[in-house]
Amino acid sequence: EVQLVQSGAEVKKPGESLKISCKGSGYSFTSYWIGWVRQMPGKGLEWMGIIYPGDSDTRYSPSFQGQVTISADKSISTAYLQWSSLKASDTAMYYCARLPRPAGDYGDYWGQGTLVTVSS
Amino acid sequence: NFMLTQPHSVSESPGKTVTISCTRSSGSIASNYVQWYQQRPGSSPTTVIYEDNQRPSGVPDRFSGSIDSSSNSASLTISGLKTEDEADYYCQSYDSSNLHWVFGGGTKLTVL
What we know:
The structure holds 2 protein chains of 2 kinds.
Chain A: E1 3-6, E2 10-12, E3 18-25, E4 33-39, E5 45-52, E6 57-60, E7 69-73, E8 78-83, E9 92-99, E10 114-118
Parallel strand pairs in A: 2-10
Antiparallel strand pairs in A: 1-3, 3-8, 4-5, 4-9, 5-6, 7-8, 9-10
Chain B: E1 4-5, E2 9-12, E3 18-24, E4 35-39, E5 46-49, E6 63-68, E7 73-78, E8 87-95, E9 100-103, E10 107-111
């Protein structure tokens, strides 16, 4: 069974760093892209970027380029989304998804989400 | 670059059929696959339609997807509506020019 299990909710202060995770199981982790999607409170889904764990090829949405870093550790089948200096506007739910096609053009399985709250 | 436009909300009665549209602003809707994601309140998204009209295993055949080149839009149709179908639905496609995903703004379906 394909599963994506994300790390737990985080409460941080502005300026702090953070790394959240998404662990894949039930499939060959290195053979599928993983994508990250943001959902701000009461808002829609926003595509942030994707990574191919096999070779760490990464693509970012222009809206998030330079704001976050997407990475993966294939030895433990885990993808990461990290911030070096959080802002209050980073408060959101973050979802990871597996992308079933080589083009990385959509998601099939989704993680349960990680709620990030940034508040002073 | 293109946008996907969905109605903000739709409502229909149990047992009826509802169709949610997703219109592509530029370029052909047929150029890239369209997916539909269901997001129930407090839950993560799930894929209900992929590659325009394919249903993942476990998704009831009450859900169907299609594309219409004449209106440059995709549609999600849910027949035999159930209260459990009440959710937000997002269409999503892919921009080949920059290899980026594009989401529609989402449609809130109310089953009353």
